[in-house]
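Design request, tokens follow.
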């Protein structure tokens, strides 16, 4: 029986689908055509039949493996939904459990996708401590040691090609990280083949590729490729010229349309393709050498190899987390979760409503974590608005580091919750912030699996206040410079490192104790992340990591133990990393997936609604994050007395730290501290401590610190910026037509003062304002001094404040008068 007849009979018997039969027969024809030129018709038919059958068998086995993984995933998720109990009432709530699969809450005792993603990313980057230390970004956001980076890329493609031993060592760190991710992706259901000559992935720029056109793109890339090493993954054979043309055109269409060419108009929702089938395409194009790879990326991709590496780690970590939590086809599992909720509430109208609401939130969380939430409808519009937001952040967040001093208090609360020592909180924080031996401390932190966004990402610190770091690179760099120069980035990084090291060090100090003998708060934290008595006994038997006498319990040492089951070792290491990452987010509140969903929903960028909601969300992310961390944890504390103590501690301490931040900001603006014996002050301090300081200005005043009303502030900075542009342009034109004095010069100076990037940096702002902007206003506007006196009188009237450096003067009259704050009365002296 011929091969084709066998396949035809299989279709007739219902053993194989017609679609699969057509695929196999097409493969047989391709193989026969290649073998026939070498072997002749008879041998070619035999070999093509065997190889096509083997390919089909391999595909069937892979499909069965993924089906088994998917079934195991659904069973595990079903148990998680059934066993979930709310933190406060201990009631079963499958709708809340479904959301906890994406981002944890206080009731969940299973890991979420958000936790897994960060744990996997840290597991990969800890193998690259030298890479990150060598190429970490400088004050302007640029990657350091560009020549060394190019040597490292060459060593990645051809070991020993540069005779640069350090570059070779750096290349090995990258290769270990990439291989770790490849293996973990495949273990979760993927099928990325190993290629010994693979260097780095391609990060294509779809617009540049599309603008070039297929013929020009093909003609430029073909001489850069090693065609002999580019093989058909199905057959293992090199491409014929005809099939290579088809393959390259398919690659071009995929890149130029951002993958949209793969979508078939079948009526099914897009995205049904299993995630396990992704990422193999990164290894399809084989470049001749590193220089060819770099030349292609300069013209059609990302010209910064460091960003390509970090992006690959981020993307792989995200996809692995989805597959490990939701199976090889996460989209199908998401629909399974939503159907399960609807089925459970079929007989109860209220339960059906809850299920539908939860299903909508599941979609939002899924899209945010996948990144499709930020896929623009109109690319130019989205980029323009994102760049505008970046520039506004660079102009308005220069004093955010003063607000960040509240981190010391959040560190204290998080340490108390986890049974860590609290007396050295400030000392550990300042030690991590010190620039002395910064590289050594950073490398230690990365080796321990701690965060390193300040070294690897542009404008990462502003995520705390904006929840968004999209936009053109030039505007992201401007914003990043302000974040670094204002010390917000170093303070954020120091806070996260100091807490993470303290937690891992405390665990190391307790390895000699059973879980029942350690601090009850630390025990509770371990159990919160699925680490009970048996698992703790395994973890504490791991050899500790020693750094100059300081010992740490490190996740990597647990994961690669050879005396326990590898799957269990990885589970324990992942749970530990999730614990460190999540608790660090309590110590240094950063960003919340639920918060982003609450603020922006699923409105995409590049639309009027999407951009308006992103303007509204600016500077509100930090406050929403506190709701999803400390406030919910306080509410989940057992017993009414426990809740009362938790909320009292949180409210009083954050208000006091907010008061300190508020007074420091006042003095940085040239004003004396505000009186602290009024309800107005403590209301503002309460909001300041909770990350909503801008709204404290509205408690007893009509305008906020940016001279805007409540409505304009709620609408967001982009709307306010647009209104200021309107007044400066159209408004002055109409005034000029009507013969009125436009005062355009004075208004332009005020506009520049408000929107110049870096002008709000706390240690520069007052000098710039008094020595440059005030003097320019005095020159341009005869009424400027009257306006300045009016502003000073307003502060005296509303807040009882005087200016220690009066507006319009080039030197201060005196030092800030601290007695105005009535600090002694506060402490009863």
């Amino acid at each position: 029986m011929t091969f084709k007849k066998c396949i035809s009979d299989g279709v007739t018997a219902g053993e194989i689908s017609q679609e699969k039969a057509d695929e196999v027969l097409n493969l047989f024809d391709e193989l026969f055509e290649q073998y026939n030129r070498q072997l002749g018709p008879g041998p070619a038919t035999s070999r093509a039949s065997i190889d096509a059958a083997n390919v089909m068998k391999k595909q069937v086995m892979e499909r069965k493996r993924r089906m088994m993984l998917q079934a195991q995933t659904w069973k595990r998720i079903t148990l998680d939904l059934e066993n979930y109990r709310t933190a406060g009432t201990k009631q079963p709530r499958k709708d809340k459990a479904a959301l906890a699969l994406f981002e944890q809450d206080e009731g969940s005792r299973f890991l979420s996708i958000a936790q897994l993603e960060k744990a996997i990313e840290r597991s990969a980057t800890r193998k690259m401590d030298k890479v990150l230390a060598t190429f970490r970004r400088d004050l302007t956001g640029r990657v350091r040691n560009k020549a060394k980076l190019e040597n490292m890329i060459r060593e990645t493609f051809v070991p020993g090609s540069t005779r640069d031993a350090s570059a070779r060592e750096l290349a090995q760190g990258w290769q270990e990280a990439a291989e770790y991710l490849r293996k973990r992706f495949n273990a979760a259901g993927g099928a990325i083949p190993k290629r010994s000559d693979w260097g780095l992935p391609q990060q294509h720029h779809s617009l540049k590729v599309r603008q070039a056109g297929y013929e020009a793109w093909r003609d430029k890339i073909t001489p850069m490729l090693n065609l002999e090493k580019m093989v058909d993954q199905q057959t293992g054979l090199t491409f014929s010229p005809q099939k290579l043309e088809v393959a390259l055109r398919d690659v071009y269409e995929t890149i130029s349309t951002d993958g949209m060419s793969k979508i078939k108009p079948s009526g099914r929702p897009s995205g049904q393709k299993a995630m396990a089938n992704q990422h193999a395409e990164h290894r399809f194009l084989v470049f001749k050498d590193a220089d060819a790879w770099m030349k292609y990326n300069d013209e059609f991709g990302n010209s910064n190899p460091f960003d390509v590496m970090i992006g690959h780690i981020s993307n792989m970590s995200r996809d692995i987390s989805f597959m490990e939590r939701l199976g090889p086809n996460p989209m199908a599992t998401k629909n399974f979760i939503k159907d399960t909720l609807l089925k459970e509430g079929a007989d109860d109208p209220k339960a059906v409503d809850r299920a539908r609401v939860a299903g909508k939130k599941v979609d939002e969380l899924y899209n945010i974590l996948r990144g499709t939430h930020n896929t623009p409808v109109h690319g130019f519009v989205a980029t323009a608005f994102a760049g505008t937001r970046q520039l506004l952040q660079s102009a308005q967040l220069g004093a955010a580091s003063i607000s960040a001093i509240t981190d010391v208090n959040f560190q204290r609360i998080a340490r108390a919750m986890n049974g860590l020592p609290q007396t050295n909180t400030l000392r550990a924080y300042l030690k991590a912030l010190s620039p002395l031996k910064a590289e050594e401390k950073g490398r230690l932190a990365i080796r321990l699996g701690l965060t390193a966004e300040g070294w690897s990402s542009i404008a990462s610190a502003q995520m705390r206040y904006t929840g968004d770091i999209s936009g053109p690179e030039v505007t992201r760099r401007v914003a990043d410079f302000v974040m670094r120069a204002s010390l917000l980035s170093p303070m954020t990084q120091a806070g996260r490192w100091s807490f993470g090291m303290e937690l891992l060090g405390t665990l190391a100090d307790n390895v000699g104790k059973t879980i029942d003998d350690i601090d009850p708060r630390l025990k509770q934290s371990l159990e919160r992340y699925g680490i009970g008595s048996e698992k703790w006994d395994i973890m504490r038997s791991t050899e500790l990591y020693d750094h100059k006498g300081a010992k740490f319990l490190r996740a990597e040492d647990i994961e690669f133990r050879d005396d326990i089951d590898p799957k269990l070792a990885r589970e324990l290491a992942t749970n530990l990393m999730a614990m460190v990452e999540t608790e660090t987010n309590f110590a240094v509140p950063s960003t919340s997936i639920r918060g982003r969903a609450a603020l922006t929903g699923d409105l995409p960028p590049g639309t009027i609604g999407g951009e308006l909601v992103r303007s509204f969300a600016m500077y509100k992310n930090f406050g929403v994050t506190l709701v999803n961390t400390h406030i919910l944890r306080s509410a989940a504390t057992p017993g009414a007395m426990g809740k009362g103590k938790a909320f009292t501690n949180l409210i009083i301490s954050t208000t006091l730290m907010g008061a300190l931040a508020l007074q420091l900001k006042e003095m940085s603006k040239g004003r004396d501290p505000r009186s602290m014996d009024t309800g107005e002050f403590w209301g503002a301090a309460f909001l300041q401590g909770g990350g909503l300081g801008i709204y404290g200005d509205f408690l007893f005043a009509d305008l906020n610190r940016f001279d805007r009303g409540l409505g304009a502030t709620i609408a967001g900075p982009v709307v306010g910026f647009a209104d200021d542009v309107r007044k400066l342009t159209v408004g002055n034109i109409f005034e000029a037509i009507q013969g009125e004095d436009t005062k355009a010069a004075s208004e332009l100076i005020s506009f520049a003062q408000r929107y110049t990037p870096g002008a709000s940096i706390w240690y520069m702002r007052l000098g710039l304002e008094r020595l440059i902007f005030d003097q320019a206003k005095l020159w341009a506007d005869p009424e400027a001094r009257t306006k300045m006196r009016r502003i000073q009188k307003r502060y005296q009237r509303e807040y009882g404040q005087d200016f220690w450096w009066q507006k319009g003067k080039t030197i201060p009259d005196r030092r800030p008068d601290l007695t105005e704050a009535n600090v002694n009365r506060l402490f009863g002296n």
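Comment from the thread starter after seeing the answer: thanks! The longest helix spans residues 41-83.
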